[in-house]
UniProtKB/TrEMBL annotation:
Source species taxonomy: Bacteria, Bacillati, Bacillota, Bacilli, Bacillales
The protein, known as: GyrI-like domain-containing protein
SMART domains: AraC_E_bind (SM00871)
Coiled-coil segments: none
Pfam families: Cass2
Gene3D superfamilies: Regulatory factor, effector binding domain (3.20.80.10)
Domain AraC effector-binding: 1-158
Stretch forming the signal peptide: none
Length: 159
């Protein structure tokens, strides 16, 4: 794990909201697949090969997810899509491997945050219901949901 300063980023994509159970059952997958199918609708992509999933834990039993691409500021949001601004700041960066359960990875991240004395940041515009209220996952756009051996998780933190 490392910490890196990052600039503000604008993500445009599709939104899904549901429970942790629904996500574990794969009910989030159709939204990810639809976003991938609509890639050409999104103009101004910074890196078309990097699919970004932003999870905001804004409810007790689940979260809201936006899956899409980072775009240049000022890019229009296509019909039926939404956007999320990822704030500038310091981020804890962790690599998740396919052979590991994602809940185990997030448990390790929580432990690392405590060991380093870091506090996960909470977006000002939401009520948070998780120890890590904002989770950003960077995936290989061609391999997400197919054969992705590794992806990065970014957690905004205060030192």
């Amino acid at each position: 794990m490392k910490i890196r300063g990052m600039r503000e980023r604008l993500i445009i994509g599709l939104e899904w909201a549901g429970t942790f159970e629904e996500a574990a059952e794969g009910k989030i997958h159709p939204v990810i697949n639809e976003a991938k199918q609509r890639i050409e609708d999104i103009k101004g992509k910074v890196n078309p090969h990097e699919f970004i999933g932003v999870s905001t834990h804004d409810r007790r039993d689940g979260f809201t997810y936006i899956g899409g691409w980072e775009v240049d500021n000022g890019t229009d949001v296509p019909r039926g899509m939404t956007y999320r601004i990822i704030p500038e700041g310091d981020y804890l960066i962790y690599k998740h491997r396919k052979d590991k359960d994602i809940s185990e990875t997030y448990k390790e991240i929580k432990e690392e945050l405590i060991e380093r004395g870091l506090t996960p940041l909470k977006p000002e515009d939401i009520d948070a219901f998780d120890d890590i209220p904002l989770k950003i996952e960077l995936h290989n756009a061609e391999k997400i949901l197919v054969d992705e051996p590794i992806f990065e998780i970014h957690i905004p933190v205060a030192r």
